[in-house]
């Protein structure tokens, strides 16, 4: 192999060889450990050169006849690299601060016996004489629409004292009428259910029907609640109450839980 082949390492690393010379050098590289070792040492240099954009290269070419311009260009390039490294260092430091803050919360939870620290007083929901939340607008931190819940609409909640079924609702006024998002817990199955809207003039409308599997929703067997949406042409101010009913095989309906407006 000629000496010229050994001198193509830098040109190959910078990617300036044509296709024929590249293939010839790669064949040589496969059997020459000296060139392979030299190529490995050039990898960091090639990485640094890749950070220099076209404008910087043009400026460097112009410095061939102007030593003072060369000095200014090199100073500018070094300053740019220092700023880049400084920004990277700040980003790394910010990540460490965020991670440290999250870790601190985790440590506080462990040290406190697993309890999550709470700030400020927590509101409580009104209850009936039997201790269940009273129907109407919800006010508790875990009730719909409060305690950081981002659900849209006016929230309501109710728990039926006899069936134990819990209903959380969000009513949103729309141009077409009212959209109703609702969530059911402690709903046993299997059964067929429907949501009824009762207007203030005592007329009714079925908004939605669904089937409940044997494990139910929001139960010990299936802890996940049932979440559905419905819509009606009735304006929100004309709704007297919303009722969830259980419908048997003969079509006879019985109330499970209701929310008065």
Automatic annotation (TrEMBL):
Biased composition (Polar residues): 124-141
Gene3D superfamilies in alphabetical order: Anti-sigma factor, zinc-finger domain (1.10.10.1320)
Transmembrane feature ranges: 90-112
Region (Disordered): 112-155
Superkingdom of this protein's organism: Bacteria
Keywords recorded for this protein, A-Z: Membrane, Transcription, Transcription regulation, Transmembrane, Transmembrane helix
UniProt-listed InterPro entries: Anti_sigma_zinc_sf
Protein name (record): RNA polymerase sigma factor
